[in-house]
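Quick one, T. Sequence first:
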Amino acid sequence: MFTGLVTHQGRVREARAPGPAGALRLVVEPLRAWPEPRPGESVAVDGVCLTVVEVAGGALAFDVVPETLRRTTLGERAPGARVNLEGALRVGDALGGHWVQGHVDGVAEVLAREARGAEVRLVVGLPRGLSGGVLPKGSVALDGVSLTVGEVWPEGEGEAFSVYLIPHTLAVTTLGAAGPGTRLNVELDPLGRWVEHHLARLGLGPAGAGGARPASR
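Structure tokens:
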């Protein structure tokens, strides 16, 4: 379990397939000292919960299985790429973001970026069928970053939503470099996911609310 408050950025040192069945060995070097993770512990890498399998030379190694590669952007990370990192939440730690499981629902795409004074507004397109789990002023995780949803455009209107990034988020996470075409791992709020699941079982479709529609896709 995580909070969506990114504590470190890392740089991909290696991304290779050493094992059977297409598993990817991903080696990430934190950009500043991070003594916390040990082999067997969980770390969120761009919002994906992974298990540390080796710590060597200041870098963390993970084995990324094919199912994770299919559902996330980790297979696109080449050496030199930056990633967001967060260690697992411990009992008694402050919960400053929201409950984040590291179980990515799909890959979203930035449709538009707009600077508005000190803030930046991103319009993010969702994979089809996920908009019912995104609520205005609810929570969502993008590449592991806990964010508050602005507007939502439901299914039939583009399946997109907006978020507003403060200067701190722009400075300490990889979202500072996100622009149109950037692909992001998206995890819906687990509470919203369960509500949507049970409504679907009752035969009730997802609802949404919005404002001005995004200017471009």
